[in-house]
Design a protein that fits this description.
rod-shaped; 5 helices; alpha+beta; single chain
Length: about 250
Amino acid sequence: MTSGGTDMIRGGSMGTFLRVNRWLLAALLALGVAVYVSSRYVHQVLAVQSSTHTTQPVTTDVVIARTSLPAFSVIGVGDVMIERVPVTQAPPGSFSQVDQVVGKWTNESLSQGIPVVSSAIFAPQSANILASRIRPGDMAVDLPLTANDVVDGLVQPGDAISLFATITEHNGQQATEDFLNQVKVLAVNGSMTPATSLTVGQNLTLILALPPRQIAQLLFMQQKGPIYAALDAPNAKTPVPIPYTTSQWQSPVP
């Protein structure tokens, strides 16, 4: 057989092989492509995970208020909780353990979700609770009153009152006027929390917070005669009335 005939036989055999096994070859090619694509996908996923792991911020535990807390209240176990936050978001003076703040007192109101910081709380054993309630520039002074002079003994700590007194004017006439308004009551009978039992008809000693000038005015009025306390509406400014004089009392009703 000539070389040309041999080449024809070989070419025919190759063509026959390709025709018979074309699906096998296609499957092998598809498998190769799938393996390549899968390897590229796995490589990309691992790269993303590695990048995420390296850029994840460092976190720390921070004690936050579970519920809103009013000022000058005791912090209980159920009032606070732990939250994990980035270190850069932890405020100065924050706490990492609940037992560090439980039993402490708040010296300002705390909103729900706000971190508890050292400047917002104090310990009764190491701080004067009454003094912490006094605004800068004010002083605390006591005012003993009978039940008839203090809304039948129903004034409670946290209330605001106006104080009235009757004075003798230069012309000899007497005039009743309120000389102090919106005075904050810090404590009643030595207690800074509302009484657990009714105080109706009881004499009360009020602890008030006032600037020195108003304390001097209060002490002066105490020397002139009895003082009467009127309970103010919450968050309301009481307008100062015109003093009621003896001449008005003696004038006929129109």
